[in-house]
Amino acid sequence: METCTRLMLINDDAMFNYSHKKTLAEYRYTLQVEEFTNAREALMFVREAVFPGPCVILLDINMPAMVGWTFLEELERINDPAMSKFKVVMLSSSVSSSDVMKASQYKNVCGYLINPLNIEMLNDILLRNGILLARELKRNG
């Protein structure tokens, strides 16, 4: 089991990113969260970033400039073994079964969730993929 200390939120709606970040904080996760409202900028960040461990990406599908599908295609084109550290969970308003099926075709995608973020379902997906989100330990006293 690997512990994830970094998480990327990629959604063109800044309010969704804010809400998801707040939800993660409420559950006492101690993640370094990177927020992006532009998938192109997020892709540039991924290309340049160095991550010692896994990084979870919560990715929206329908965004201007670059849709989530294009982001995934570009991620797969990066010829670097380090890209396997990026685990993508689609987090979208789309309930279309064709979107769920399409998402499963990408090697970095490990799950699909419907907005709003459900922490229990996210943890279930990540645990099945050998990943724990970093969390603050409760202290006695």
From TrEMBL:
<dbReference type="InterPro" id="IPR011006">
    <property type="entry name" value="CheY-like_superfamily"/>
</dbReference>
<feature type="domain" description="Response regulatory">
    <location>
        <begin position="6"/>
        <end position="130"/>
    </location>
</feature>
<dbReference type="InterPro" id="IPR052893">
    <property type="entry name" value="TCS_response_regulator"/>
</dbReference>
<keyword id="KW-0597">Phosphoprotein</keyword>
<dbReference type="InterPro" id="IPR001789">
    <property type="entry name" value="Sig_transdc_resp-reg_receiver"/>
</dbReference>
<dbReference type="Pfam" id="PF00072">
    <property type="entry name" value="Response_reg"/>
</dbReference>
<dbReference type="GO" id="GO:0000160">
    <property type="term" value="P:phosphorelay signal transduction system"/>
</dbReference>
<feature type="modified residue" description="4-aspartylphosphate">
    <location>
        <position position="60"/>
    </location>
</feature>
<protein>
    <submittedName>
        <fullName>Response regulator</fullName>
    </submittedName>
</protein>
